[in-house]
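stuck on this fold:
=====
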Amino acid sequence: MATYQTDTAKLQAPGGAGDSGRAPGGLVSADVLMLTATYTLRGDETTADSIEIGTAPAGSRLVPHLCRVVSEAVGGSFAGSIGDAADATRYSTALTLSSAATLAFAGAQSGALSPVLNTANTPILFKVTGAPAASLASKDKKVTFLLAFTAQN
């Protein structure tokens, strides 16, 4: 029976990267930074708008499986994806926020399969793909984004 190794296991093996054979700290042992940001709907958001959630610090990687979005019942077909200016769906697709819910990031996105190292401070964006309910119905509803990043210590 064969045993196969992930990229991290190879780095940890004797003779792997680093003086001690340990994998880089950002992959195995890193500080986890949490960004909590709340957006209050204006009531005039439309498809193709972007909501800037916050900034991923230089040297960090967003960890999609640790991230969540908490939404009040916004109504309509309010939905979107989470990414950055280079890739609107880098971290999540298909987040439907029309009902009150807590959602995990969705989809096997490149940011989860091949974590992206932010070489500079990088704005994280919610790209609206479905409009909220008519202006007065969604105005003042809140959406809270909980983003987790690793940063090499």
